[in-house]
Amino acid sequence: MPRRSRAREVVLQLLYQDDLNPAPDIEAIEKFLRGRLAGDEALIDFARSLRQGVRRNREELDQLLGERARNWSLERMAATDRNILRLGAFEILYTETPDRVAINEAVELAKRYGAKQSSQFVNGILDRLLHDVRSEEQDDT
Predict the structure, then answer these.
(1) Nearest-angstrom CA–CA distance, 111 and 98
(2) What is the DSSP string of 46-66?
(3) Using the 8-state DSSP alphabet, how is residue 74 labeled?
(4) What is the DSSP code (8-state) at residue 75?
(5) Residue stretches of the chain with pLDDT short of 50
(6) How many structural domains compose the chain?
(7) Which residues does 20 contact at the CB level (< 8 Å), separation at least 6?
(8) Which CATH number is 95's domain given?
(9) DSSP per-residue letters across 83-134
(10) 3-state class (DSSP) for residue 15
(11) Which domain does 33 fall in, by range?
């Protein structure tokens, strides 16, 4: 598994935990990151930035995703799918990760951790988000 893919997998686990227990133990999170990413400082920094970014922008991410999840509210989604979507949306909107890489990584996480239809669900919503973001960028020019 590529290194950054492994970091995303670890971040998904932390986001899932955050979703169910919103009072994080920072010391335990750091220990978890270091253990799961074998002390690789670059990967730990990458994972930390993803987790913190999703947490910091969660309200906006949830709103944007909710607007694109036809007939689904985020509360009704499986916690795994919801957090994969948040992670993918954060990477599309706030990082230099190429858009298609962010979507492909999210789809792979959904295949590995989600239900049978999760990968298609995640792909559809993130694709709509990407399309809308690109359309807005073109309108601004």
Answers:
(1) 20
(2) HHHHHHHHHHHTHHHHHHHHH
(3) G
(4) G
(5) none
(6) 1
(7) 79
(8) 1.10.940.10
(9) HHHHHHHHHHHHSSS-HHHHHHHHHHHHHHHS-TTHHHHHHHHHHHHHHHHH
(10) helix
(11) 3-140
